[in-house]
Amino acid sequence: MPARQDEKYSYVDDFDRSEFARLLRMVVIETWDGGARVAMDVSGKRNPLGNAHGGAIFALADHAFGIAANQEIFNEVAVSASIQYIAPAVERLEAVAEKVSENNLNSLYRVVVYEGSRIVAIFEGVGMKMAQKEPVP
Predict the structure, then answer these.
(1) Are 127 and 77 in contact (CB under 8 A)?
(2) CB contact at 8 A, 67 and 104
(3) Which of 8, 58, 92, 105 has an alpha carbon 20 to 30 Å from 115's alpha carbon atom?
(4) Cα gap 71→133, rounded to integer Å
């Protein structure tokens, strides 16, 4: 049974207001069943070469994965994640997460990180379903 709409958006709001998201100035742009789009400006997150730091790119992709994976009735935690960096980036980034597959215990998400229309990185995350969420009163 999927989450009620108000529960879903409440949870997305919680992710949007989390300390880490605020620290990196990540913003949830859009969500849909099994997916999320999250944006982040790279200013203040550059490496010595002037490009977006790989850790910042990973954090953005991981955040989008977390939002996409936690929209249903079970809380999910990441059990593994990997990233392939395709190209350096210097501007605003957007991460688009989408569910690829799931079973009763795990789910697999693919996140593509873009700078404009150019692919910067591809991330895969495996989530493990935990306890069912408490209903919102």
Answers:
(1) yes
(2) no
(3) 8
(4) 10
With bands split at pLDDT 50, 70 and 90, how would you rate the model's confidence at 136? low
> Residue 111 pairs with which residues in a beta bridge?
97, 123
Q: Tokens for 10?
A: 């409440």
Model confidence pLDDT, tens digit, residues 48-86 = 999 999 999 999 999 999 999 998 778 899 999 999 999
Structure tokens at 60: 């953005």
Q: Where are the domains of the chain?
A: 5-132
Strand partners of residue 30: 37
Tell me the fold of 5-132: Thiol Ester Dehydrase; Chain A (3.10.129)
CA distance 65 to 78: 9
Nearest-CA neighbor of 56 among 116, 107, 123, 117?
Answer: 123
Continuous segment of H or E residues that includes residue 10: helix 5-16
Q: Is the pTM of this model over 0.85?
A: yes
Q: Give per-residue pLDDT as tens, 76-119.
A: 999 999 999 999 999 999 999 999 999 999 999 999 999 999 99
Q: Which amino acid, 117?
A: S
